[in-house]
Write a structure and sequence with these properties.
Layout: E1 2-7, H1 19-34, E2 39-45, E3 49-55, H2 62-77, E4 86-89, H3 93-109, E5 122-124, H4 125-130
Antiparallel strand pairs: 1-3, 1-4, 2-3, 2-5
Length: about 130
């Protein structure tokens, strides 16, 4: 499992949390999860970046999957991405829980909401597996 952070490009005019971007981004997370391109534990959009807890099948190369995902959104939705991405390998359950809490509280820390449950721009393993 990896904690992935991807930022939008410096000149990107529309926040990832605008419905015109957020809905296709989150729908593509569902598609990649269901087609086993990755296994998503948590995926959360912020206005200028996103956080994800993802695992990748042994036959998939993480950098290639992420590159293809970003390229798709650039071509079809006009998203501009910062080059590359940040990744951190999650080594144990405690670290996984800490990163999940950090991600869920990110909109609270940034002053966008007061309670994590109020943030609409995320999907998690439970919602992905329920569909």
């Amino acid at each position: 499992m990896f904690h992935i952070r991807i930022r939008c490009g410096a000149g990107h005019p529309i926040a990832f949390t605008e419905a015109s971007h957020a809905q296709p981004l989150l729908e593509s997370v569902r598609i990649y999860h269901h087609h086993q391109r990755w296994f998503c534990r948590l995926f959360l959009l912020m206005p200028d970046h996103l956080h994800a807890l993802l695992a990748f099948p042994p036959d998939k190369i993480m950098s290639q999957v992420i590159k293809e995902w970003k390229t798709y959104h650039s071509r079809h939705h006009g998203l501009q991405w910062q080059d590359g991405y940040f990744d951190h390998r999650i080594r144990n359950r405690r670290e996984l829980e800490e990163k999940a809490a950090y991600i869920r509280f990110n909109p609270v820390v940034k002053g966008l909401i007061t309670h994590p449950a109020d943030w609409p721009w995320f999907v998690d393993q439970h919602t992905l597996d329920a569909k």
